[in-house]
Structure formats: structure tokens, C-alpha cells
């Protein structure tokens, strides 16, 4: 008669190995999910873009890891960056659905800043000088950066 005990031991050990591997590997699998780290925009004139992002949006410039003169890096949230790259870029011309979005504490206060800087704004429909109120109660407006990129400004809390 054939002894099946060694086969059962191998199967039991293989099962234990799979269970132990799953217990230790599942946390690593969840860490493999992609997370957003940065956005990059091309700018025809980096100095003009820097003025817009620091004065209009009041973004903070952070150290440039490339240590060159064709990149500016901004902090746009915890562990989130945006960099603007000087280049031979055509004016951005995308559908309204393609945009960046930044939140501010107060849309009226932000609009006051836009008015002092003579920067036009519109609602989602493109109607100049109008605020959009979404169905969830969030107010939003849209502006363009110097290279034509559309930027939503909202008051999400």
C-alpha cells in the first residue's frame, strides 16, 4: 500500500505557507496602489507663470530638485507638488472638463483679489463674472493661467 502521509504533510505545509504569505503580503499589495504625487505644466514664460501662481493663487515655491532655471516647483497640498516647466509651449486649448482645481476659504474674497488684478473669471458655462453653485452647495469659478490652462477655484470645505 502506498503511504500518503508525506503528500498530506507537503500539502499542509504548502497551505500554511500560502496563509502566512497572504498575511504578510496583503499589506504590501494595498501599498502598491498608485497615489497622486505631482502635476506638471508647460509655460512659454516661466517668470510670468511664477508671478501668477505666487500672487494670484498664492502658492508656495518649494526647492527645485533639478536646481535649474527652467523648472519651478510649488506645494499644492500635503505631499503634493506641481511644477511649471519653461518650454516652447503652444497656448493651452482644452475642453472645460480638462482643468486643475484649487480650493479657497472664500470665493468672494478671491474674486476681490482677481478684480484688483484685472483677471477675468467665469462660471462653468463660460459666462463672464458669474459664480457657479454646484448641486452640492460648492461655489466655483474658472480662470486661466498665462498659458491658457483652465483653473477651477472653489470653496470646498
Can you characterise this structure?
- The chain is α/β, with parallel strands linked by helices and 157 residues long.
- It has 3 helices and 8 strands.
- The longest helix has 27 residues.
- The N and C termini lie far apart (74 Å).
Task: Detail the poorly predicted runs.
Answer: 17-22
Q: Supply the helix-strand structural class.
A: alpha/beta
- Shape designation: globular
- Strand order of the biggest β-sheet: 1-4-3-2
Work out the strand percent: 25-35%
In whole angstroms, the N-to-C terminal distance is 74 Å
Number of strands: 8
**What's the Cα radius of gyration?**
25 Å
**Order of secondary-structure elements:** HEHEEEEHEEE
- Please report the number of helical segments: 3
- Determine the fraction of residues in helical runs and give it as a percent range: 25-40%
Biggest sheet details: 4 strands, mixed
Query: Mean pLDDT, nearest integer?
Result: 88
